[in-house]
Amino acid sequence: MVEWVQGLMDSLGYVGILLLMVLENLFPPIPSELIMPSAGFAAARGDLNLIVVILMGTLGSVVGTLPLYYIGRAFGEDRLVEWADKHGKWLTLSGKDIKKADDWFDRHGTKAVLFGRMVPGIRSLLSLPAGMSEMPLPKFLLYSAIGSGLWASALAGAGYLLGDNYEQVEQYVGPASKVILAVLAVAAVMWFVRRRREQAQPG
User: So where does this one cross the membrane (predicted)?
Assistant: First the structure.
């Protein structure tokens, strides 16, 4: 993976960074915590400009959010509510739950997008609820750009400062993303169990 990422950037330069960051949002196994530090290292060698590296990384990340956003927008809350009322019983999921989640995203969606874009493991998934809650596209793009820009800056800056040791960034951030996903999985299981118990209680 390291050699492939580095090779693509060596051959395509800034366009390679943009393409890799687009793909990172669609295929999470391609991690931004490897792409951007590698690009920062290339800037430290003098092959690329650090500011342009960050701009290309941010642009690629924002463009990469759009497919899932539009899928969520096309699916929409109404269709998901209808599906949940018909088929969600085995997940203990109802249309009412979907509406509550959508209301939550309406209230806190800007913060979720802004800070979520800096959280490995969920950063690419936030586009789906943003689209489903019909967050206005300009607002979604703005907060995605700010969060993505901060994330790209931190990773590229770390790669620039670490030089030959830029791969250490992925070694530290990679396990952190696994911990975050594990916490989310546990929270989902706890919610599922609690819902089961509530439904099992008489009256």
Answer: 12-30, 50-71, 140-163, 175-193
Alpha helices in the chain (DSSP H): 2-12, 14-26, 32-44, 50-87, 95-116, 127-132, 137-162, 168-200
Contact by Cβ (8 Å): 89, 199? no
- For the residues of 23-52, what is the DSSP string, one character each? HHHH-TTS-HHHHHHHHHHHHHTTSS-HHH
pLDDT tens digit sequence for 145-182: 999 999 899 889 888 887 665 555 555 555 555 555 55
Nearest to 129 by CA among 149, 147, 145, 111: 111
The answer to whether 58 touches 32, Cβ cutoff 8 Å, is no
Confirm if 159 and 100 have CB atoms less than 8 A apart.
no
- Output the pTM of the full model: 0.70
Q: How far apart are CA 45 and CA 37, in angstroms?
A: 12
Note whether 19 and 8 are within 8 A (CB).
yes
Residues across the chain: 203
Greater confidence (64 vs 105) lies with 64
